[in-house]
Amino acid sequence: MSEPVVMLTTGWNGYKEVGDTETYIVTSPYSSPTSSLTRCRPPTRPIQSMHPLAKATGSVLKKGNNDNRTSTDYHYFPVVCGGDRNYAFSNKCYHLNAAPPHVATLVGIMQEMRIGAASIPILNGTALWVTGGEYDLISSTTEWLNVSAADVKMEDASSSSSSPLPKVLSAGIQLPQPRAFHCLKVINAKTAILYGGSDGSPTYFPGSNLTWAIHDIDANEQILSSSQGSDNLWIPRASMKLRRFLHGCGVIRQDIFDDVSSVRKLFVVAAGGAETRYETTDLVELLAVTVTEGEDNVVFSEAWEEGPRMPTTLRDAASATTPDQTMLILAGGLITKQPYKMSYKIFNLRCAAAGYCWWTTDENRLMFPRTFSVAMVLPPTGNVQHQDTTVDIDPQCKLLPSDFRFLIDVIAISIVFFFFLPTFGQTFAR
């Protein structure tokens, strides 16, 4: 696997919760806003691999092949936690195999049932930190699942032995306020940012514009202890201009062409979402962040700035960022609440020199519209083992230019009309 692969799983299709998983290849983002994208549709229909769920959370972790957390001997380990089906909330965490048939294995039990939680990988990518969410009330609690070799044992797919006992997640520090349908994103290995979300009203009205940063999340595991006070850990940052929840979010580079500088300039992105329960917006805000490599010095801008509007109003979309932070991906989502209109499109946000950012509509489309799903990006293989994450995508489907794909579609439609339309006409005439 030489390019990243987006994996989209679970969600709501307008009628019911689903457990289907679909994948597609992400090719190089180094193209101008006017260039045609050359990506590939999923080779098969989505495979139902999870119990049908919506409003879950998850991320791709690193599962070590030994007990050393800093070892480079590991493979990627997608995990999905929480969610609900017919208002039956879940406290379970599943490992989702990226290779078809995308078999899901129970690996953890959360201490609380949660929907609308947010999560990030921590501890060098070997643990999933699950924050906030809702059960009876919107929560400020957090918990984390460690998938290092000493904690979670992989079950051999060829083995007839029973599954390993799932691990109970460890309680973590409190959030500064109760939050659900919020964003929590990684800035670098030690810093994360929390922004937006519902702040506790039973009707999700209104959302929040507050922002906090937390540092040294990988310094030691004690910072994730529930016995540690959180007052001094969450540092308030600039508030967004718009209150919002259910928004798309991610952290991307301000210039996709700048990959040599020791000073990384990033944008924290808040895209779309809703200010109230029945609203949907296309407004985008960006918070500039500067990271000095080697010194772990993270400097946040004093204000959010307006970003490029989305191609459409959108909320409840699945968000993911490419491993090199060059592109934010938003998949599916709800275009309008009244009338109820869902999206099957994929939108990408990139930025170039001087912070010029633009949206493009991906040539890939979801096999069916879905909201409240989980999107994860599997990095390129490189020198890392991918023993359970080799995604089976038809190589003949890769990198077909859009103009040729359009021509092929026209030829296919013409053939259908040429061969079948006369038959239909004769049948009708009789």
Detailed description of the structure:
The protein has one helix at residues 402-429; strands spanning 5-12, 17-25, 47-53, 57-64, 74-81, 84-85, 88-89, 92-96, 104-109, 118-122, 127-131, 142-146, 167-168, 170-171, 183-186, 192-195, 211-214, 234-237, 248-253, 263-271, 284-292, 297-300, 305-306, 318-321, 328-331, 334-336, 341-342, 345-351, 357-365, 374-378. By secondary structure, it is mainly beta. The protein folds into two domains: 5-399, 6 Propeller (Neuraminidase); 400-430. The strands form eight sheets. The chain has a five-stranded mixed sheet with strand order 4-5-8-9-13, with no helix packed on it. A hairpin with a 4-residue loop joins strand 21 (284-292) and strand 22.
Number of helices: 1
> So, the CATH homologous superfamily of the largest domain?
Kelch-type beta propeller
What is the CATH T-level topology of the largest domain? Neuraminidase
| Apparent shape | globular
- Overall tally of structural domains: 2
Q: Strand share of the residues?
A: 35-45%
The main sheet orders its strands as 4-5-8-9-13
Briefly summarize what is shown.
The protein is built from one helix and 30 strands.
From the structure above, extract its key features.
single chain; 430 residues; mainly beta; 5-stranded mixed β-sheet; 5-stranded antiparallel β-sheet; 1 helix
Helices and strands in order:
Layout: E1 5-12, E2 17-25, E3 47-53, E4 57-64, E5 74-81, E6 84-85, E7 88-89, E8 92-96, E9 104-109, E10 118-122, E11 127-131, E12 142-146, E13 167-168, E14 170-171, E15 183-186, E16 192-195, E17 211-214, E18 234-237, E19 248-253, E20 263-271, E21 284-292, E22 297-300, E23 305-306, E24 318-321, E25 328-331, E26 334-336, E27 341-342, E28 345-351, E29 357-365, E30 374-378, H1 402-429
